[in-house]
Design brief:
The protein is mainly alpha-helical and 187 residues long. The protein has 2 helices and 3 strands; from the N terminus they run ββαβα. Among the domains are: 45 residues, no CATH class; 67 residues.
Length: 187
């Protein structure tokens, strides 16, 4: 027993449109030579030109059964599940954002404290250098080789105050503003 299969390239639906040289007869291998070939292998042989191919009879089309309607309670549970999935995803995303924000803030605060410590150390160094300079300048001023003379009250210079100037009162009439133009000047 064998089957004829169409092997043409024009993909027409009718058997009569197939050329006879494109028809192949499939036979089981155990009838031909079961000792040399594997069982269940098929061999291809051309169909004789007299072979007649029966037309296919269309099968009855059956409509698939419709899915039964879910009860209201089950629909409600499915809706709750979907809502809780969305809510859980939102909460996870929010938690990740808050976590990354706190890590960023911790690193920023640590950098700020390090900078503050560096600035405090720099302030101490500047204060120490300033005090050292003041002390060395005072020692140089007290030395007799500097040429400074001690303060004597009789050599003090007193300046007389400058004469008082008359106060100027602002003119209120000069502050009148010019009228605004009817259209805007620009933006």
């Amino acid at each position: 027993m064998g089957f004829a299969v169409r092997a043409d390239q024009n993909k027409g639906d009718s058997v009569s449109s197939s050329r006879k040289q494109n028809l192949v007869l499939l036979r089981s291998a155990n009838k031909l030579n079961s000792s040399t070939e594997k069982p269940f292998a098929a061999s291809l042989q051309p169909v004789p030109s007299r072979a007649r191919i029966p037309r296919a009879v269309p099968a009855e089309v059956k409509q698939l059964p419709k899915a039964p309607r879910l009860p209201l309670g089950l629909k409600l549970l499915v809706g709750v599940q979907q809502g809780s999935t969305v809510l859980t995803g939102g909460l996870v995303a929010t938690a990740l954002i808050i976590y990354s924000w706190t890590v960023y803030l911790d690193k920023a605060v640590a950098r700020s404290f390090n900078r503050l410590d560096t600035l405090k150390a720099a302030i101490q160094q500047v204060t120490t250098a300033n005090a050292t300079l003041k002390h060395s300048m005072a020692e140089q001023a007290e030395s007799p080789t500097a040429g400074f003379k001690p303060f004597e009250p009789k050599r003090a210079i007193f300046l007389s105050p400058a004469p008082a100037r008359p106060s100027v009162e602002p003119d209120l009439e000069t502050d009148v503003q010019a009228p605004m133009p009817p259209h805007p000047l620009g933006y």
